[in-house]
Each structure stands twice: as structure tokens, then as C-alpha cells.
Amino acid sequence: MDTKALHKISYGLYVVGSRLDGKDAGCIVDAFIQSTSAPDPTVILCSIQQNQTNAAIKQTGEFSISVLGTDVDPFVIGNFGFQSGRDADKWAMVPRKRAGELPMLESAASYLRCKVTGMKELATHTVFFCDVVDAWQGEGEPLTYGAYQKDMKAKVAEAFQAHKNGDRVPEGGKMPKSADASSAEGKWVCSICGYVYNGATPFEQLPDDWKCPVCGQPKSVFVRK
Ligand SMILES: Cc1cc2nc3c(=O)[nH]c(=O)nc-3n(C[C@H](O)[C@H](O)[C@H](O)COP(=O)(O)O)c2cc1C
Fold it and tell me: pTM above 0.85?
């Protein structure tokens, strides 16, 4: 099977906003689709079970979607996608507004409010079946997952790294070596942030609890290019 065929399936990028124990929660997702449009719109979200956002959605049964635009600040993607709300107050780091109690980005291409009507557990993910109970227009054109992969991934890794170093750099800065896809051939690459492992220890010999130095995701998310 040529799994690269799956790379040609199109997605968007979204910030999910939810609440857990009275606090804001949320993360970046691409696995989100409209499932029906009539008589009422319904959507499906595929959420990683171990994430805080998954627990939040299960607790409240609802979430917001901020549809990311092509002009999104790359830091927003790193902030919501490269770290867990268990370790950082992600919503405090971006301008936000609310639909009821649910947090949403101040600026996005459009917004949805979704109510969970059913769910199915897969091996690693939960599939949430939802009604769209409200929707609003925002500004700009939606960002595609393909455009993120092609043009933004390095900027996102760079903006997040700069934030971690306490030194955020403006958009359009220099691409970090670790995220340069052209030098990744045959190497182990983080499937979340694009970091290319170049260490002296063979990747296979790194300890099981080793984590990506850029986004903190476990060794298991690395793939060989
Ligand atoms: C580009 C990108 C796409 C992602 N897509 C999904 C997704 O579809 N579903 C999901 O559950 N997590 C997805 N993630 C991972 C979560 O955003 C990430 O694990 C996050 O740190 C979880 O944070 P939390 O523990 O606060 O929920 C994606 C991350 C990135 C960077």
C-alpha cells in the first residue's frame, strides 16, 4: 500500500475551543469535516484520546471551531498544536472571544459552535459526531492543510521555538535547519512540527521517553522520510 496516496486527501486547519473543569481548553485539528448539510448541518471531529481537548469535549459535550485563515499568525498553530493545555494556558497567549462559555480566536475565517450527539472510540482517537448549533462568518480565506505543510510548517516551528526561548521572532524569518524538508531525506522527522532529528545517537537507540525538542511530542510520532 502506498500510504502517500492519503496525503492527497484535503483538509483545513482549525482551533477547537472547549472547557475542562471550568477552564479553557483546546487544540489544533485537521481531522474535521462537514458530514451533512440538510435538514441541519452536522460535522465529525477526530480527536486524539490522550489530549486534554478530548477530555474537555467529553466533559461538556460541546466545542467551538475557529476556521484558520491564510493570514493566521504561525504562532497560533504552534501554540495550540505543539503543546498540551496540561502544561500551558494556551488561550491566555492569543486574543480570544467567546460563544457562550466556549473560547474562540478573536480573528478567524469563520466560526462554528458544535454539540456532540454521539461518539465512537478508535484505537487512538475518538470520533465525535456533532450538530452545528450556531455559525458565524469571520474574515479572509481558509487555510488548507496542504498549504500549511508546504509553506507554513517551518514558520510555525520557528515561531514556537522562539516563544519557548522567550524570543518570538516576526513572521517571515529564516527557516530553521531542523525544519528544512529538503534535508530530511532518509531521516527521522516529527510528524507534528517537522523537526528533523540530526543527533549523534541513532534515532532507534533514543530512550522511549525521548521527546521532540521543538514540540515535545513523543518518539512514536516520528516517521522516517
Ligand atoms: C497541523 C496539526 C494537525 C493536528 N491535527 C489533529 C487532529 O486532527 N486531531 C487531534 O486530536 N489532534 C491533532 N493535532 C495534535 C494536537 O493539536 C496536539 O496534540 C495538541 O498539543 C493537543 O493539546 P491538548 O492536550 O491541550 O488537547 C494536530 C496538530 C497539528 C500541529
Answer: no
